[in-house]
C-alpha cells in the first residue's frame, strides 16, 4: 500500500508538499473548498515548482465551481509543470457546496463533467451548454496539446462507485464500507503519532490541535446529514443543541468553522483528547501502523494521511516513520 498525504491548501502547503516528497510520500492531494481554503490549482502549481517526483492531485475538485474548459486547461497547465505526476480527483462537492447554500451535485452530472474534461485534455472537442468547446493552447504557451491524466472519484456510496467503474477510474474514500473492489482505492485518514515516551494527559492540548480536526469532521458530517450517530458521540447532543440555537443564516458557518484545519472554540468544549483518539488514527507508532496495515487487507491501495496542527512537518515526519519504520 502506498503512503500519500493530503492538505487543505494554504500559503505554506507547497513547502509542506516539498517536505513530504523528501519523506517519501507517493502523492499529495489538495482539497477544493473556496469558502475555507486557497485555490487548489494555484497551490499545486506552486508545489510543482518545488518538487520533482511526488504526485499532485485534486482531492477532490468540485464540478460546479469551474467550467469544463477551465478545469481541462488547469490540468494541462499543471501537466506541463509536473509531467506524468498529475491526477484529477473529482466529486460531488458536499461540504464545498453546502457552504454556498447548495446540495451536493448529482452523480450523473459528475459523470458527464468527468467525461468532458478528459476528452478536452485528450485534445478532443466536446458539446457543453449547447456549444462546441475545445482547449487550444498554442505551442508557445508551453503546455501539452493533449495528455492522459488518471482520474479518481470521491465516493461515499454505490452511485459514486458505479460512476467510477463506468469511467475506469479509482476511488477516494473517507470511511469504511465504501470503495471495495477497486484496483486503485485511496483512503483518507487523520490523526497524530504519539512519541513512545509521550504522556497522553500532558499532551492533551497537542493531541486535540494535531488530530482534533479529524474528530470534529465526524461531528460536522453527522449533524449536516442528520445522522443518529451524533447522539452517540460524546457531547454530541449538547453540541447539536448549540448549533440548533443559532439563526439559520449563521448555522453552516458555525458548524463547519475550522473544517479540517483547526478545532473551533465551540467544538473544543466537547472534543477532548480521548474523543479525538477514539475517532482518529491517534496512538503509538505500532498501534497506528497496525490499523493502517489492516486497511490494506480491506483493499485500500493508497493511504492518504492529512496532518493538522501548528507543526505540519512534525506530523508528516512522525507518520511516515511510524508507517515505514527504519
Counting helices, strands and paired strands, the structural category is alpha/beta
Intertermini distance: 17 Å
Total DSSP E strands: 11
Question: So, the CATH homologous superfamily of the largest domain?
Answer: Luciferase-like domain
Largest sheet: 8 strands, parallel, barrel
Average pLDDT taken over every residue: 96
For this structure, what is the CATH class of the largest domain? Alpha Beta
Can you give a write-up of this model?
With 326 residues, the protein is α/β, with parallel strands linked by helices. It folds into two domains: 2-193 and 283-323, Alpha-Beta Barrel (TIM Barrel), CATH 3.20.20; 204-278, no CATH class. It has helices at 13-23, 40-48, 68-81, 94-98, 107-121, 158-167, 204-225, 229-232, 236-244, 248-255, 265-268, 273-279, 285-297, 312-323, and strands spanning 2-7, 27-30, 55-58, 61-62, 86-91, 126-128, 131-133, 151-154, 170-173, 185-190, 302-306. The strands form two sheets. An eight-stranded parallel barrel has the order 1-2-3-5-8-9-10-11, surrounded by eight helices. The protein has a two-stranded antiparallel ribbon with strand order 6-7. Helix 1 links the parallel strand 1 (2-7) and strand 2 (27-30). The longest helix is centred in the middle third of the chain and has 22 residues, at 204-225. It is globular.
Walk me through the topology.
Layout: E1 2-7, H1 13-23, E2 27-30, H2 40-48, E3 55-58, E4 61-62, H3 68-81, E5 86-91, H4 94-98, H5 107-121, E6 126-128, E7 131-133, E8 151-154, H6 158-167, E9 170-173, E10 185-190, H7 204-225, H8 229-232, H9 236-244, H10 248-255, H11 265-268, H12 273-279, H13 285-297, E11 302-306, H14 312-323
Parallel strand pairs: 1-2, 1-11, 2-3, 3-5, 4-5, 5-8, 8-9, 9-10, 10-11
Antiparallel strand pairs: 6-7
Helix pairs in contact: 1-2, 1-14, 2-3, 3-5, 5-6, 7-12, 13-14
